[in-house]
Backbone:
């Protein structure tokens, strides 16, 4: 694999059942490309947490995944309410998800910590009332 | 142990994947919170859960979990069954509650991995 390719996904709003389809698609593509299974899993988990966040907190969004020989970069853009305090949001266990989300198995406050744990780089840019952009990178080796 | 051992220990029933009953299982995780499951990356693991929605199968897929056990007799719907077949994830259902199901597997030597440290 020597080329750099970008794959884009639209994450639909308010459709909890379909959340994860983009991450599932990336996971199969990376597997087929012969990427190391540990790296595939890290990318899949980090992106899945991000995708779930877009459905829970925003009204869906867009994900661009760029695969190069050196790294996999995921850029997640939503036009949701934005994050008021990013440092607080990064704390394990802190969540603003509503109770109905907890009954669905999410909203434990582990999403952002997990995204940090499984990536080599995590950057969050957020503006209240405008939206959030999450940039994650996983190195190929 | 293998998936078939889990079925026997828990008196469980296959919903999906009897053909994968000889797959090895090395560790287990019991939770209804999927982000807690996603925090735990181990090879060849089984997930025990009382949560029953499509995101359970999605979580299993992302984690390369080989088998999902629904406790308290929960049954997956058609969409979850289809997803599990496609991703080759075995599904079992047992009448045991979470605590008992985990205890029975622990007693037979299955472990959950090291203590969590940040």
Residues:
């Amino acid at each position: 694999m020597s080329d750099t390719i970008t794959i884009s996904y639209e994450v639909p709003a308010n459709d909890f059942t379909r959340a994860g389809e983009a991450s599932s698609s990336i996971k199969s593509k990376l597997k087929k490309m012969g990427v190391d299974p540990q790296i595939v899993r890290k990318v899949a988990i980090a992106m899945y947490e991000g995708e779930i966040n877009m459905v829970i907190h925003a009204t869906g969004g867009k994900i661009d995944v760029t695969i190069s020989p050196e790294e996999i970069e995921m850029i997640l853009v939503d036009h949701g309410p934005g994050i008021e305090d990013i440092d607080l949001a990064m704390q394990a266990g802190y969540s603003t998800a509503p109770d109905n989300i907890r009954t669905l198995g999410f909203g434990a406050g582990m999403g952002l910590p997990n995204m940090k744990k499984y990536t080599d780089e995590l950057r969050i840019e957020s503006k209240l009332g405008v939206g959030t952009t999450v940039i994650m990178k996983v190195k190929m080796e | 142990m293998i998936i078939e051992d889990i079925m026997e220990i828990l008196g469980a029933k296959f919903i999906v994947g009897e053909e994968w009953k000889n797959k090895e299982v090395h560790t287990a995780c019991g939770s209804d919170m999927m982000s807690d499951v996603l925090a735990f990356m181990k090879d060849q693991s089984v997930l025990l859960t009382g949560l029953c929605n499509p995101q359970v199968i999605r979580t299993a897929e992302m984690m390369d979990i080989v088998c999902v056990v629904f406790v308290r007799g929960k049954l997956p719907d058609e969409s979850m069954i289809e997803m599990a077949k496609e991703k080759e994830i075995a599904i079992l259902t047992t009448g045991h509650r979470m605590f008992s199901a985990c205890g029975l597997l622990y007693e037979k030597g299955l472990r959950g991995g090291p203590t969590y440290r940040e």
Q: What stands out?
A: The radius of gyration of chain A is 14 Å. The beta strands of chain A are 5-11, 61-67, 71-78, 121-127, 131-139. Helices of chain A lie at 21-32, 37-57, 86-90, 99-102, 111-117.
